[in-house]
Amino acid sequence: MSTDLHMLSGAFALDALSEEEAKQFRMHQRGCSACHEEVRELRQAAARMGESEPIPPPSALKARILAAADQLPQLPPKVSPIEGADSRRWTTRIAAAAAAAVLVVAAGFGISQFRSVGEQSGVTRVFQAADAHEATVKTRTGATVTVATSRRLGKLAVETDALPSLNGQRVYQIWAIHDGTATSAGLLDDPEHGAAMALPNAGTLVAITVEPAGGSRAPTTTPLFQVDPASV
Amino acid sequence: MSEPGLRLVPAEGPADIDALCSSVARGDASAFESLYDELASAVFGLARRVVRDPARAEDVTQEVFLEVWRKAARYDRTLGTPRTWVLTIAHRRAVDAVRRSESQKRRDNQGAPDEVVHDEPAEALIRDEEHDAVRGCLETLTELQLESVRLAYFNGYTYNEVATLLDKPLPTIKTRMRDGLIRLRDCLEGAR
Predict the structure, then answer these.
(1) For chain A, N or C: smaller number of CB within 10 Å?
(2) Under a CB-based contact definition with an 8 Å cutoff, are residues A113 and A167 in contact?
(3) What does the pLDDT read at residue B86?
(4) Given CB atoms, is B91 within the 8 Å cutoff of chain A?
(5) Which residues of chain A lie closer than 8 angstroms to B79, CB-CB?
(6) Which DSSP helix (H) or strand (E) runs through A161?
(7) Are B114 and B73 in contact (CB under 8 A)?
(8) What residue ranges define each of the domains in chain A, with the CATH number in brackets?
(9) What is the pLDDT of residue B3?
């Protein structure tokens, strides 16, 4: 199996593995310094192929990117060895620092329409539970996000109002963030009707980001907001 | 920098990008702008090549540079040069964009068979003079190595899809991708 996995280094360097295989390969690589070195070299070769046909982008793009970066907080350096160089990690610290500025960033992506797969009854149940706690966060653009938790139901629900609509290429995605790792809790398919999820364990934050259609494996934009359910 | 025996690095050379990356990691916006100037054409060129649509290539380019900005402090030098780091992000983002739109299309077409887009020949791919080395080295690959590498890298196909497209067994394709890249690596090293 491990020889087999090792042979995937080329496909891995070309981003030609399925998600599942890429995950397996990354795990294999962690215990295999030879693979690590090989991937580094093969990526370098691939990158040289990739940069071999440069095309100057339209000049307006530069201003757009610089303006967006200006609104975007940076992640702190890693201080202890954590898994791989993939984008799976997300630090709560940054998410917190970023919470305020974010709708502006989201707007920068040019967003304007929703997809939907909501679970309304679950949401309503949580909000109407006898032991429901609620907290409402107002975003900069005047949208509101209300989070309710019910310990009895073991559920957390999110309702939003006046969130900017997204074009078909972006969706709102909900995350449970624990120890700096963000796990997808699903797409906010129908922001009008909100979404419900299992109440996360203590110390887990819930955040919403704007992601490409279909969602991401890890957050790729700064959260619109995040909340500690324990504080609700 | 001017110690005897050290080779002079051109202003736009790799050492610059290294230094720029370090400054970007410390939140230096003007370094970020310079880094953009250095690498935007390479990133946009690759994005165009993979996603094809110019507007989407711009989106990918934006995603790439924002990721670079966001994660500059986490860039790990042992994983490769900063240039490779940026190009690696660019490729992953471009491929993600293609796969997203493919699965979207598949949903829209409700299982209609995929249209196979045949690429321009590899020769047309690489024009820039300074990249003669890359072109020369790609020519040393066998036809199957080149096809496998090219379809994966520039079309964003998984090795499984490449195997299907080329009607070859999976192990063959994964091996060709690996030995093709190894050959490219060795040739590029020799060409330096």
Answers:
(1) N
(2) yes
(3) 97
(4) yes
(5) 40, 85
(6) strand A155-161
(7) no
(8) 5-118 (no CATH), 122-231 (2.60.40)
(9) 42
